[in-house]
Target: Helix-turn-helix domain-containing protein
Amino acid sequence: MKGKMRYKFGHKLREVRERKGYTLKDVATRAEVSESLVSQIERNKVSPSIDTLLLIADILDVDYEYLFNDYRQKRKVSIVRKLKRGTIRRDKVAFHQLSVNDGAVRDSAIEVFLLEIDPGGEKGDRQYGHAGMEFGIILEGSAELLYGHEQYFLAAGDSVYFPSDMPHLLKNTGSTLLQAIWVISPPRNLFRH
Model:
């Protein structure tokens, strides 16, 4: 691949090689590649194939996590400012955005919102579920969760976690506003840009 390398790990390979007392030739011979290639990898001049990188890492007995731990530390942080939260209102239910998704669907991605349900209001569907998992914690008020054919009562401080592929409905059974933090994974992208 031509152009600037996005992630550089060559210096780590060189440091480990030198600490173990291996020469460029030692590593190149065992990996069945040229000394020049090993040198270029260590100087971040070329990006090796996955097979070559794994082979060199094995020769040096380098943990793969060590090679890429800096990469993980450079991930994007998403912040939703209180005054810039998106809000969606549907009948007696308000969804206040607490997380921003980058648009990529990943198994570990989540969508988080502050859920507010007026007395008598409800969120969900008695007929259908959707793929994924849900977690909620009731901040204020009381609720009834209908999950399949089961019924659960929730009060302030209670939390619930369940597979969301079963039909489910959260209903405000109290006389005051129900507030909850709600997490869905994978995201349903309620707040699309």
